[in-house]
Prior knowledge:
Elements: H1 3-15, H2 18-25, H3 29-43, E1 48-49, E2 56-57, H4 59-82, E3 90-97, H5 98-101, H6 106-115, E4 119-126, H7 128-136, E5 142-148, E6 158-172, E7 190-193, H8 199-210, E8 216-220, H9 224-232, E9 238-241, H10 242-247, E10 254-257, E11 264-272, H11 280-293
Parallel strand pairs: 3-4, 3-5, 7-8
Antiparallel strand pairs: 1-2, 5-11, 6-9, 6-10, 6-11
Amino acid sequence: MEFDNIRAFVSVADAGSVSLAARDLYITQSAVTRRLQRLEASLGTPLLDRRTRPVVLTGAGQAALERCRRLLNDVREVRAATANSDLPMGEIRIGVAHALTELTLTEPVGQLRRKFPKVAPRLRTGWSRELLERVRSRGLDAAVILLPKGEPLPAEVVGKQIGKEQLVLITSRREDHPPVRKIQDLAGVQWILNPEGCAARAALRRALLRANIDMVVAVEAYNYELQLALVAQNRGLSLVPERILARSRLRSRLRALRVPDLNFPLAIWTVHRQPFLGLAPVIAELNRVLIERL
């Protein structure tokens, strides 16, 4: 079995499609497909059910995935341990929660590259819990995520809390609905929110359900600035990190609602498994530059 074939299989399993794996590996889709076919031929069994979208692992694929992850990580550790260099080197895979990507990671990544020129950061965005699971399963080396305040990390994962965040309800300054002073006043409100999978959306739904209020989603959008633009046009209410509102060019047209029954404090974490040989200084530097940024 060749290393590149194993890496292609793990990338497809993580990404859920050949096209996304090709993007992550910086190769063509046909190259990913050939590598998968060579690995399956060497094992004598299919690893993926290609009839589904996203692709689904076969029984053999599920049995092979964690072993392939460990093999890739073992190879990386061997390379780091035997590298003829005093500086960390190689690839580091970092996940970033959707809610934090808009805080601009250009400078933190630039600082990492300047301090560790032989390290190649590979960034992936996603929902916080998805990224946390990928760190746990060694699909990522580290991640910057948001978790509800006080929520513990899984046993296999270590991390450092590097900041705090607060989710706030946002409305237009030219709102035409009645004032919102308590959660019951949100009955009948239309919402502009992240798609399903967002922990903040799930927390809002739970809070509304406890008050016997149905959550009516008018618009789903990943981009917070788009959400805020729609709120500014009085198309509905949204729930966003307070930091996003503070930095938005639209903030003069928006207003944060303080509702006593709705409180969503969050903690910003960097999380990782026990660092690979040679990468501990990189993770420590990532923490430092992010704390400065936040």
